[in-house]
Records
---
Amino acid sequence: MYEKSYGSESFAQVAASLASIARSFYTRDWAVGTSGNLSAVVDREPLRLAMSASGVDKGALLMHLFLLVDEHARVLSEHDAKPSDESLLHIRIVKERGAGAVLHTHSIWNTLLSDLHATAGGLAIEGYEMLKGLHGVKTHEHREWLPIIENSQDMLGLADNVGDTLSKFPDTHGFLLRRHGLYTWGDDPEEAKRHVEILEFLLEVVGRTLLLQRGNRQGRFDDGFGDDSR
Amino acid sequence: MYEKSYGSESFAQVAASLASIARSFYTRDWAVGTSGNLSAVVDREPLRLAMSASGVDKGALLMHLFLLVDEHARVLSEHDAKPSDESLLHIRIVKERGAGAVLHTHSIWNTLLSDLHATAGGLAIEGYEMLKGLHGVKTHEHREWLPIIENSQDMLGLADNVGDTLSKFPDTHGFLLRRHGLYTWGDDPEEAKRHVEILEFLLEVVGRTLLLQRGNRQGRFDDGFGDDSR
Amino acid sequence: MYEKSYGSESFAQVAASLASIARSFYTRDWAVGTSGNLSAVVDREPLRLAMSASGVDKGALLMHLFLLVDEHARVLSEHDAKPSDESLLHIRIVKERGAGAVLHTHSIWNTLLSDLHATAGGLAIEGYEMLKGLHGVKTHEHREWLPIIENSQDMLGLADNVGDTLSKFPDTHGFLLRRHGLYTWGDDPEEAKRHVEILEFLLEVVGRTLLLQRGNRQGRFDDGFGDDSR
Amino acid sequence: MYEKSYGSESFAQVAASLASIARSFYTRDWAVGTSGNLSAVVDREPLRLAMSASGVDKGALLMHLFLLVDEHARVLSEHDAKPSDESLLHIRIVKERGAGAVLHTHSIWNTLLSDLHATAGGLAIEGYEMLKGLHGVKTHEHREWLPIIENSQDMLGLADNVGDTLSKFPDTHGFLLRRHGLYTWGDDPEEAKRHVEILEFLLEVVGRTLLLQRGNRQGRFDDGFGDDSR
């Protein structure tokens, strides 16, 4: 494990934070079957990231399973493992947003919603107090547009799509890859984790709201149930 | 951390209880992404509350992250942190109800139901044995009306709405803020925690009952399924 | 805590088992807000049960919170606490079935199903391999009829209803109290716990099957989806 | 417990892995009420498997509750317990696929889907990134066909059905037994566990997609909600 300190965060510090976050995501079923990946910036000039290794059980992710990579996802630390297949996406997000940490989850609700709203190219979430936990958001009267990008195995092409999407939507706090999952980021691992928790929560609220809405013969969500509501 | 003892509860005692409760709420997904807040009365004359700090991860909430505040939410303890943004709501509830502890959760079901029944201004829950765990309720044949208040970032105005609602509904054990969450209280942290667990349970039962009801073409919940019920 | 040994099980042994079971039920959200109760036979002649105390948080239930009671629910051990309000139901079940342990849970799904099928007086569960875990059941081609009894605060009357129901349905492994919860039992705490887990699982399967069935415009559960099924 | 080493895995090693996996499945509600079973190959010539004992609480499954069995499910280790009733299924899967470990879970969603698609004889899952975690799958543009086999108490007949199904679908990574559960396997316990997590995740996504789809009056999943999507 690479132990030298760089810039404002040491590799060991961020790897430990990310490992702890990964295990908590696994517990919540957001990173099962070795899915999901996590990264954090260790230095900016030149760009160095701590990146989770590929194919690791996130419930057992420990510090030593992080690699130091450069901006081309080349491994700099002495390590047998490969970095996550999606390293180029993390790197692009860091560059576009100046993020300090990038997190990727596969959850039931982010997968369902990424599919449901794919044709619209994204989904809007607004009016929830929970949105205030997103960086820079001060009121529940905020409209968060989460873009949905088509999934692809061509990582270079996908990284370009991610970059274009982030340019086109400079205020978004995350995006969905269709039938794949959620990407979000933050200034540091803690903020990125907070963003994941908020967006996963809101995606489930939005999804379940649709179920309640769709089952209603009149098509409206709020039926003025009053005393009938039991 | 402020350690002096006041009245019937010491600050340290209630802060420890509330911290433990916060962590259990986080585990249940009722306080994710730093949402939720908790308070307990340390003294009544003058009014002193232990209040959770603003923006703290409730899964990592420890005793030292509670502040001592007065009835205007001014911080009395030596502490770098800010008290919860919603401190004025806690204070109003304590004053209106003589509560010993106030708890606020953001859950999937309390968020969904706060939205679904907003037009009606509240929802009724009745007939469930679980209602007997609410303070003063002796039978399942109890009708609990949970008012729904529109959310706002104007804390002074919102505290007044809360106060008015509590005066108008003197028997209610809690209320919902639309697209925000649940507030409930108790004589002490343990009772308030019991109330949260009961109301969160019942809100999920009510919500899922609606799904079963709405999917039914005849619109009735109980269809006399008998042997067809599988 | 009463420590003398009786018959085949000592009080300490069964209280420890039940306390552990209670805490696992609380973790599963089957005994929140102090709901639920547990008992086990300590001696048969005369009848002595270890009974959970009333109003205790099941997540914190320890051995010392069990009382020794007789067949009239009178407390024999030196204990400040009251026995569960539903002690008479436990005693009646022990007498009718010769059970060694009786467990009572309040879960989302047992509450929903107890309401949904109330008019039919019960619900049938058949064809599931999971049924084989019920005492005496050797094949999935078993039809389990779970009676639903109307809830009441009149414990004497309710105990009689429970007794009558158990006489009328000698093969049933459990019953539901409407808008209240599930009662099941076993030869010992371990078997009763296994029964709870199996019935709670099956009630959720039955409930979710209804949702899938009701949402289907043709009213059938299996639509021969084949390749459309995604 | 049988401690001699065979071939590439020692009995103790695989029993420890499987016990840990069983307890994690129990925590996820995939092996409640003593359901589920697990095996791993200890030697191939002659065939020797570590097999979970019958009727054991999977939340308490420890290494010593595994038995060494031969290809006829006869117990070779000195052990009072019986091997799992479904040992012959594990053995057949090992022979047909050359698997190193076989895992069987009973979950809410695998039970629901096994029933829903029974008439079609199976269900297809395609287009999800999560499929890439299955052995040999390199892209999300993979179509996984999960056969559904009718359940039976005739283990010999059922083992033959399993064998025939595996021959007929040489690429499948698992199969469902109707109203019973999921069987999957891998080169070792870790891979089999990864397969369970992936398939259980995808079965829930498929099931919940159906609910969202069925509730939609137009019958389409993606309605181009755009800004209406809340």
Note: Residues 19 and 61 of chain D are 5 Å apart (CA to CA).
---
Amino acid sequence: MPISDAAIKSAELLALERKYCSFGDTVHYLDPPKVFVSCEGSTLHDEQGTPYLDLQMWYSAASFGYRNPRLADALKRQLGRLPQLACQYLHAEKVELAARIAQYCEKRFGVKGRVQFNVGGSQAIEDSLKIVRNYTGRNLMFAFMGGYHGRTLGASAITSSYRYRRRYGHFGDRASFIFYPYCFRCMYGLKRETCELYCEDQFEKLFESEYHSVWDSRAEVSEYGAFYIEPVQGTGGYVIPPKEYFVRLKQACEKRKILIVDDEVQMGFYRTGKFWAVEHLGITPDIIVFGKALTNGLNPLSGIWAREELITPEIFPPGSTHSTFSSNTLGTAVGLETLKMLEEEDYEKLVNEKGAYFLAGLRELQTRHPGIIGDVNGLGLALRIEVCKEDGITPDRKLTDRIFSEGLKGDMEAGGCKYGLVLDVGGYHKNVFTLSPAFTITRQEMDLAVELLDQLFRRCRAQ
Amino acid sequence: MPISDAAIKSAELLALERKYCSFGDTVHYLDPPKVFVSCEGSTLHDEQGTPYLDLQMWYSAASFGYRNPRLADALKRQLGRLPQLACQYLHAEKVELAARIAQYCEKRFGVKGRVQFNVGGSQAIEDSLKIVRNYTGRNLMFAFMGGYHGRTLGASAITSSYRYRRRYGHFGDRASFIFYPYCFRCMYGLKRETCELYCEDQFEKLFESEYHSVWDSRAEVSEYGAFYIEPVQGTGGYVIPPKEYFVRLKQACEKRKILIVDDEVQMGFYRTGKFWAVEHLGITPDIIVFGKALTNGLNPLSGIWAREELITPEIFPPGSTHSTFSSNTLGTAVGLETLKMLEEEDYEKLVNEKGAYFLAGLRELQTRHPGIIGDVNGLGLALRIEVCKEDGITPDRKLTDRIFSEGLKGDMEAGGCKYGLVLDVGGYHKNVFTLSPAFTITRQEMDLAVELLDQLFRRCRAQ
Amino acid sequence: MPISDAAIKSAELLALERKYCSFGDTVHYLDPPKVFVSCEGSTLHDEQGTPYLDLQMWYSAASFGYRNPRLADALKRQLGRLPQLACQYLHAEKVELAARIAQYCEKRFGVKGRVQFNVGGSQAIEDSLKIVRNYTGRNLMFAFMGGYHGRTLGASAITSSYRYRRRYGHFGDRASFIFYPYCFRCMYGLKRETCELYCEDQFEKLFESEYHSVWDSRAEVSEYGAFYIEPVQGTGGYVIPPKEYFVRLKQACEKRKILIVDDEVQMGFYRTGKFWAVEHLGITPDIIVFGKALTNGLNPLSGIWAREELITPEIFPPGSTHSTFSSNTLGTAVGLETLKMLEEEDYEKLVNEKGAYFLAGLRELQTRHPGIIGDVNGLGLALRIEVCKEDGITPDRKLTDRIFSEGLKGDMEAGGCKYGLVLDVGGYHKNVFTLSPAFTITRQEMDLAVELLDQLFRRCRAQ
Amino acid sequence: MPISDAAIKSAELLALERKYCSFGDTVHYLDPPKVFVSCEGSTLHDEQGTPYLDLQMWYSAASFGYRNPRLADALKRQLGRLPQLACQYLHAEKVELAARIAQYCEKRFGVKGRVQFNVGGSQAIEDSLKIVRNYTGRNLMFAFMGGYHGRTLGASAITSSYRYRRRYGHFGDRASFIFYPYCFRCMYGLKRETCELYCEDQFEKLFESEYHSVWDSRAEVSEYGAFYIEPVQGTGGYVIPPKEYFVRLKQACEKRKILIVDDEVQMGFYRTGKFWAVEHLGITPDIIVFGKALTNGLNPLSGIWAREELITPEIFPPGSTHSTFSSNTLGTAVGLETLKMLEEEDYEKLVNEKGAYFLAGLRELQTRHPGIIGDVNGLGLALRIEVCKEDGITPDRKLTDRIFSEGLKGDMEAGGCKYGLVLDVGGYHKNVFTLSPAFTITRQEMDLAVELLDQLFRRCRAQ
């Protein structure tokens, strides 16, 4: 297609979009929004055919690369046999997928449990809330500042950002939000080396007296049923906690019969170099919520795993919940293929090696932009670049936005080719690039990424 | 596959399922659950290869028939080009699909509006709740007894059945539920011919005095932001209301600035013989929620259309909500193909003709089981059979269950072949077969359906 | 005091009031508010010394007449001995008062129970809500349209008028309001003679199907913990229900383990000719809430009686609630004297005789204003006059307001004296005079009341 | 009365109480409860005539001494003239009392405002919640750990102790509780001399990012409408904050349009040596809530003062709230007399001098029980003794309870007379004696108090 045609088509599309599409989803963060027409591996293509190296991969939903052929085949196979089935009937892929996940958890944590599917991370979170509310008899939850669990009303109530609730009236089940061990910006101004997990101590102090508001010390009952955690914060800016924190948090919660719900929607399925990110933390959660990468983005399948005690049919009987597409055949078929892939190749090794290589590149980049790149860190292929003022700490949201937008112009050059760069902005101050590159990314692509980032930092700092 | 192998595989599958799958979704209504392995057109096949004529088609999600080739091709095309894309970027199919739906509404209702996508009907309902809460400043909703809008916590609060809430603690946004014009079981014991819509009068009486609890007559403000309706009740038992009811209800609501949210998740896209079921009612809703049949079950894509005033970017700006898979490329591509199909063929004619034929068959069946089949009715291809005791009115839930279970045994014979029959049970008393056959169903298949139903009624009444 | 001085003083007072007093209470319903300076028996006096015959007696708080000497003496005795004592210690009057009330209930209903005090009807209602929520584990209540239980946030949630909630955001515990058997304005347009308590049937229909929203028919559990009733509606307009209604309602509730909380704040202590108004209804409530007349208005003492099972120390242990003034010595001393009075004289006879005499006078008045006085009724000395248009049914709020205001002008003449008349307006449409004259009112005063009412009706109808 | 008769009477009383009284109020903290029969000045008398020096004076409700003759006369005067009047009419004392309070606030804070009355501190708190919810449009409040604002459902939601909520289901308006500057038990383990109000910094950090959960930084709107404070914590253990804290807190709140509601129910009317305790803090609150000492315990009158902007009739119009006894004539008459007393004598000087003398005695006592008396402090006549283990910091609840119980035995001797001592226990760990002696207490009585306390500490430590 000649460029002029593409341009005409694009203009028409944007005009239609401006007229008929809600802006209420996230599209209009960039105005006009960027249009893409094809994808492959780590690359998106716009209407002019320019390649954009994608470092966010649909917020980690496409971990196995765009248009992964094996997963596409799995989808097509199911499409040719049983693409539709009401969820009150069984099909093999659902059962096998559930079994593999539950068996993995049993092997890894030594705990029996069951799996239930749904579509979209938020609905899986809602299912987890139902399980917690049913089992504990309590509506209220602890969750973390910086935490993100979705945008249904129930999920918004346990998601930290007030901006996500402000328009929607009163939230009677609003969580109580606890400071996350975000050591680069410690709320207490401490350093990890010497803090002795002061922040976790602060949480435990809530249980020292009934007047601290959450604990009846006579009845030994907490007002809160569960603590929702992300082992690495996603939207919060790929914040990597000190491991020891969660060991102590888990003990503190267990002592007060507060469940731990582990949200792995963004970090599960090896994003951090472990099947579940929570495995880095040395604890066993009571419930795990997963989604996104399970189907590599080919289907919104999500789900939960819960300890037998919470989800056993006596406690959570048939009809406790329902969703038309909950264990849809296409999604479970792709998910099953994903699980097979994860068992056949050593993704722990692969992801950690690539992650280490990329992190080294980013650290090198940091030395070229001292202060401006306040923090660089990574766990597996979940990586972060925190953009600051020259002082190395004050968040520079404007610069972050400029870099993000410039990357999408698709006008950089490297090795004689034109490139764009697809980034994602997160963080408490919207000054963090949260990188979740494809597991299929190559060393050359990682080198290219660092090169393009360097160009963007230079270009935008000069503005 | 020889039967013995199938049996072994099935037994293994059921054992795995019993161990690793939650029973909390609906699977275990039948115990053991029924396993299916393939599908085509109006037919599901079990592991022995027995065909089951399916009269519920995944609760109307697969209206265009199982394995519809045109829609499968649309999915494969997108799979080959752009199967994944973060929803903060644009792709053509999303825009074109939104535009077609909004243009249809504009043409049909004379009202401008916008479309927003999500996955799963419940999440679309949650989006609609956000729009209502944002626009009206109110948390509380009216909804109908017998109404069903989903199972997230927010959707459960506006869904009538208390059983769906009981396990989950307090619902601070519980709707106020109003009697639906379910004339076969009129709550007031009246007959439609002479009632003069007494039930609608009763609703309006709530606004006669501030002491009737919902209306401040001085400030002229209602405590309720919107009224959630189903033009034909789905889970409630395919209840078809008298059309005039909603004309009056709409006027009553408009006068008190109460929005109408029209849930078309089950009835939209020609199930009732109109694009939107609400078109039968002669009213224009403020918000339409849709899902299921939009992709013929190939993707959980759902969405809402809202009047411009409610969803305009000034009122509902970027970032108001978000969902990773909200306008996923695979779903929007299939949805777009569905819309094209709907424009190319006269589905209004097709559905109404087939519906009339099937309804005639069911009415004939009713004459063979007087009393026992208390009511038969239909709108387009949404049909109902209400199973009663001999008195023609007392619900017979046990007989309904037996018929449902027997149908799934797959041991009936017709024309020398073995058949099963897939039904779905709904209704306030779980005594209604809610039929939503494929639009591709043939006259022969409808005849077969009536024949099999007759066999089942005879067999089960004799037990 | 010469009139001019009084006028000056009054003007100063009104100026101060306009500047420093909240208008948020009900004083400014009349503008400027009416000032009174003394009282005695059934009469209030304004600054000019004009007597106003009072037919509302502080909404039934001063049933035993203004400045009742015996009760004043009881107050003074306690004032001279133990006017203050922290409620964590005991004093004799509290115990004796509680015992007399509990013994009365035991004798009358055959049910053991306990009493707990507080101040103000709303706080007693809040205590009853705590007992219901603790015992049933449920936050939600049924209550009646037209019902009034107070204005704290908790009491407002179960009080029908939305106007009382509108300004105060979301009420997550809002009751479900049921039509009260207000036969003069039957919501169903029926006549008591032939209705067969259709309205009660309608309530029971809510339990016929889980889809009717309040009942899980599998678990046999209701979403609602208690039904709050007034045996005669107070603020709702002294609506007197058909007795049989509550016998059936009680059975319906008992069957579903829904408690009955009987609000006697306005009608208790013989206002209706029985100790508790509920005694007219032939049912035993689970909780009784009382206040107002207990101290004849000399102290805000209120309280609850609850069945032993609900309030026994194991279930409702020390510290379950608290209020500094809950069982204050002055209030309990006066309350105890009230109870002694009630035991010493036959108030059932006295109140019913006076009530019958007054009602006869009002019925005669009705014949003089046919249509305009749409309804007249009474139970004991709780009487109502419903003001309508000439058609005898359309509420005439304006005329009601005029009569109310004219009465407060204090410019009527009767028997050569100048008089005012103090009335109170209630009812769903603010068109009902709710009369609660002092038990000490004389026949002459009742004759005078009818005469003054007649003057007011004539004067205001002519305007 | 001979002792044996008293004993019989007492036994009968306790038997009646055990049978007919709820234990749900606080009486049964001591078992059997203590009975008192008369009072005067600083002394309560039991049935044997033994005097008990009272250091808590009904939680500060009887600040002006038991049976204060001037206030008793004011009550009797009103009793003889206008002891009853419906609150929709005006009487002079209400207006004059409101005016004096509002005028005081205007003079002291330079801010115009209005007063509204009610009965009981909790109901005044409920009124303040209504004003905040109406003005800010928000349901949620900040409040302090250790804070106490009452026991209605609304007040319990903003009162820190979870024990007060646990039995009563879900609280959809639960406050967010912030650490109070309780320096003796600093949650952060800091010392006031060097902390630089670290705790206030922690509060402000909540507004640094929308992800800290309470603040939308784009819209500049907080999720919380007001911050409820006690200038000195009451039930929390008479905790005296560093003054500078509140200056900064006020600025922080003002900046985010969060109102300050000052609960003076226990500390108002000179308990701390200032008319309002908040005057110590150098800030102007938006709303003041008061009660208790206003009538010296002779009537439950309470009330609020609010800034004109919040309570002006346009914003908070007639009928916004209501309570039968809200501005009852007896209560307002006594309150008016209290205000006159406060204007006629220099209570600031009197209370501070007596407070200093008593505090010196307590400090001396502390030297006799080092460690065991971990902290002694006071502001005016609000004084605290914190009972610890020998380490001077670990709370010793058991010793506190023993001392409290022993004091009530009435078997101590001093100066040849038998005495009891009435104490009150508060604090986050129930190990604090909160002393609020009468303003009429003499130096001899204070000396006696220290002597009796010393006896109790010695006796109980020896056990």
Note: Chain A touches chain C through three residues (CB under 8 Å).
